[in-house]
Amino acid sequence: MLQQPALVTLMEVLRSKSGDYRFEVETNGTLSPTPDFDEAIDQYNVSPKLENSATPLRLREKPAALRFFAASPKANFKFVIAEKSDLDEVMALIKTYSIASEKVWLMPEGTSARILAQRRKWLVEICKNHGFRYSDRLHVQIWGAKKGV
Which of 63, 53, 3 is nearest to 30 (CA)? Predict the structure, then answer.
């Protein structure tokens, strides 16, 4: 999101060649898009950092940006869950910013198939109970913690 003006230009050039282009951006939800950028984007994948990331609260939670994304029909929220206690923070964010449950995706944190399997079992049940969506880490299942795959 730091390169919004350049990305808008790139999207305009690509769409002038074909209307089939679709643009998604993943963001940690700390910067609000400009009007031009918002108009050009088809989908936002907002993945706010939680306390488990060790990122200070003042850096990871920007209320104006989170309010924008929560209200946007283009936005989905993905939260990376390491422990069941992370859900308290997720539920507080959902309540504070009025994030619709169908826009919430939960993903287990983990760099091994064994850890993901353990977390998947209880995280899937939480998704079912709250009407959230579940996302796994297929790349870790296939290649492990390998970078660049």
Answer: 63
